Structure formats: C-alpha cells, structure tokens
Description:
Distance between the termini: 33 Å
Radius of gyration: 21 Å
Number of helices: 5
Order of helices and strands: HHHHH
Shape: elongated
Number of strands: 0
Amino acid sequence: MRAKITYFLTAAVLVVYFVLVGSRGLMLLRQGTWLTVTFGVAVLVLPVIGVWFLWKNTQFVRKANQLASELEAEGGLPVDELERDQYGRILRDSADEVFARRKAETEDAPGDWRSWFRLAVAYHDARDTPRARKAMQRAIALHDRKPVQV
C-alpha cells in the first residue's frame, strides 16, 4: 500500500510540475519573438515527453498488478523463500539460487506468461531492475497474446 501512495504522490507532483513548465512555455510563446518562441516550443516538449513517460509507466504498473492478481487467484504467486540478513535485506546467494530455478522454469515453458512473471520477480529480488522490467513486459505481452520481441 505504501508503494501505491508513493507512486500516486510522485505522479501528482509530476503533473503539477508539467503544468507549471507548460505555463512557462506558453508565456514564452506569447512573447512572439523568434527566440522566445523557440524556447517556448523547447520548454513545451518536456511536459509532453513527461506525460507520455508517466502514462506508459502507469499502464505498465496497472498491467503488472493485474497479472499479479490473476496469478494470486490461481495460487501461482511465487512464495517468498528468500533468506534475509538481520536488517531484512535479501541475501545475494539466496536470490541467485531462486533466480536459477525461475530461469530454468522459464526455459522449460518460454510461452507461459506465469513463468515470465515469476522470473521478473526473481530478477527484482536479485536487484536487476532492467531485466526484471523486460521479463515483466514479456509476461504482459504473452498474457495479452501480443507479439513478443526477442
């Protein structure tokens, strides 16, 4: 729940920032000189890119949560079997061991979105966020029966 609150709070701050930057860009456009119009257009590009990025991330999170709910209903969510240190951090050897099993499971069933979801969780536990995201994107694509990029 804390992650959702943080996400929505960050998104709200970004939206406020986009509005402020957009208003500054419009002010520059209204000045009408070639320099201010150029800067105004450049400034307006930033909120457009930011809104697109925020939208794509929100879609990704929503779909990943949808898959998690579906997998939970099936009883297929990965069990937290990771060893932790005294501060609650995951031990690297434990994460690597679980990752090896998840990778083998995914290699045995490369077309199953469930195995890709569990592999994404294992990547995340191993602190490999870029690969975790790619594995989750693959799980989403397989679930939605969209073409999968290799």
